[in-house]
Amino acid sequence: MGVKMAEKRNKKIILMMATLLLGSFITTLAETLMNNGLPMIMEETHISQMNAQWLNTGYMLVAGMVMPLATFFMHRFPLRHLFTATMSIFLLGSLVATFAPNFLFLLIGRLVQAMVVGINMPLVTNVLTIIIPAKNRGLAIGIAGIIINLGPAIGPTLSGVILEFYSWRMLFIILLPFTVLTLICT
């Protein structure tokens, strides 16, 4: 009986870790996915490069500003509810950006996404520390670091391929099914 319970617990931990890391991967992928899309966005929305750069600069600024609030939220809300809320907010930001009729709405969608990144990065690390047994924690945090940092690393290449064939809106559309999958798994 003890072995079956341990196996069931391990499967649950693996599913929780996979869900957390999928959400983290998606949100950090969004960080650099936009880089190659700026010229196309500038042309379509008739804005200057200086204004367009706010899509990236504002994203990093907001993510950094929100990050210290993560601890406050983690103490105020159950972690599962907080993760579900942040991923729902990320989905909302992605939808706003996808269907943005102008640059202002696109920027708002991006900044909403950034708020989630600022909360999720410390949230995921803390949740992994809680759910992973001490003997496996270093491995789990290492795997998490690789997956979380893979998003920004492949973002520019992936966006280059996408923009070769599609509009900049596809940079947000591709995030939607994975965000929904993360919410379902939560």
Fraction of residues in β-strands? under 5%
DSSP strand tally: 0
Rough shape? elongated
Q: What is the quaternary state of this protein?
A: single chain
The overall number of domains is: 1
Show unreliable segments: none
Order of helices and strands: HHHHHHHHHH
- CATH homologous superfamily title: MFS general substrate transporter like domains
The number of helices is 10
CATH top level class name: Mainly Alpha
And the CATH topology? Growth Hormone, Chain: A
Write the layout of secondary structure elements.
Blueprint: H1 2-33, H2 38-45, H3 49-52, H4 54-66, H5 69-76, H6 79-98, H7 103-131, H8 134-165, H9 170-173, H10 175-185
Transmembrane segments: 54-75, 82-105, 111-132, 139-159, 165-185
Subcellular location: Cell membrane
Domain Major facilitator superfamily (MFS) profile: 16-186
Write a structural description.
This protein is mostly helical. It has a single domain (31-185), classed as Growth Hormone, Chain: A (Up-down Bundle), CATH 1.20.1250.20. Helix content is 87%, strand content 0%. It is built from ten helices and no strands. It has helices at 2-33, 38-45, 49-52, 54-66, 69-76, 79-98, 103-131, 134-165, 170-173, 175-185. It comes from Lactobacillus acidophilus (strain ATCC 700396 / NCK56 / N2 / NCFM). Its main location: membrane. Residues 16-186 form the Major facilitator superfamily (MFS) profile domain.
